[in-house]
Amino acid sequence: MQQHRFFTDALLLSYLVVTAAAFTVTMTDWMPSGFLQAPIRYSYGMMAPYQGASQYNRELQLVGYDDKGTATPIPLDSYFPGLRGEKNSRQLLDQFIDLSIENTGPVYRSFLEQIRDHEHAQGRTYASFQLWKERWPTDARGYRAGRERGVERIFLLRFP
Amino acid sequence: MKQTLLQRWDRFFYRTVPPHTFAILRIGFALFLMLYWGSEWRDAALFSREFGVFLPKISTDISILTFFLQPPLWFVHVFFVITFLLLTMFLVGYRTRTTALLLLILSIYFYFWNQWLFATSFYRLFQFSLAVFLFPGADKAFSMAMWRKHGSFWAWQPMSIFPLRLFALQLTATYLGVGWQKLILPGWDSGAVLFHSFTSRWGTSFGFYLARILPSEFLDWLVWLTLLLECTMPFGLWIRKVQWIYFLGGFVFHTLITLTLGIWWFQIMVPMYIVFLDPEAVFQWVRVRSKGKISPDSSAVL
Predict the structure, then answer these.
(1) What is the complex's ipTM, to 2 decimals?
(2) Which of B13, B178, B201 to mutate to probe the A interface, most A CBs <10 Å?
């Protein structure tokens, strides 16, 4: 009984310390190093959702080219689960927070290899692909309505 | 007699209480997880190697890992069938702690398989909740366990309040972080942040509609109301006299997020508010409505 109580007290105190540290991270962006970082990061994740409000919407645009160079837009949403927000978050690699735009190449290459194979399995064969990231201002008339006011494009990758 | 700090600590974290709060939470949480995993099952094909896109979190050079982290479609369906079987066992309170552990393991597996690309607060809260259900008590009322032991679904046994306190502390911490961080995050000083949220990738038709019709002054006011609610929520939930205002406020807040942004997963936090009520009061409330089926004494079957 005493042992059991010692265990729960220790667990409770550890939980309180980690949660307090995670709250400090939430308010100050200071992340401690060492073995406590993983639980603190996890706890931080439970108390700091949704920080993504922006004046721009972003999306990937993928185009496949056949042997004659004819371009065909490939809708990416059909390859990702969830509603628009989740599909978009997965496509834009939101979880790769440490990757700069220059370093996303290898990740998107793997991404495009799989889409090439899926497209091929459905009878659509492409000789090459080009991938862009686009952004446009948000607009109350609709998700894509703001594109009329201008779209910025960042070239990401030519594949293969 | 005046209580010492240690006695207060003991009473707050370890006192023995009726288990009905935890049992109701078990049932609500199981139903919510069924809704969540059902929505994931709908996209089963996109979690399979035949139709989905995988960016593994860990190296898949080892072939057995490749199989599990980029599984074929038949395996995806097996995964969901097992998950739903376990959720059903959890719902009815049959081997509850074992099923909670297995569900936790499956959720960790699903994270490495696919969910890490959409690693979110709600998913962590689900995992945390499953971990809290490893503590005893959730099947000490309204469960197969009680039916097997005492021959009645209405039989009950007391439990330690400890897991309920863990839930309450985590909900407090979540609202504390979410609310107070907004005081320093850029953009939360005007309604523009709501306009951009309603018209973002998350925006629903209703969100876009509100962005069209609501004047910016109203959005400013809505931001202040959100800050007021979220920043005081961690305290208000604990104060008996005002907690019902926060229960209602939380319900409206999370429902509006669901309607305008389609982010419905945090709705689970609303039924979880039950942990801020006294377990003895919940027991009395349930007992009165059971029309005499629930005994005032533990494990006595009427």
Answers:
(1) 0.89
(2) B201
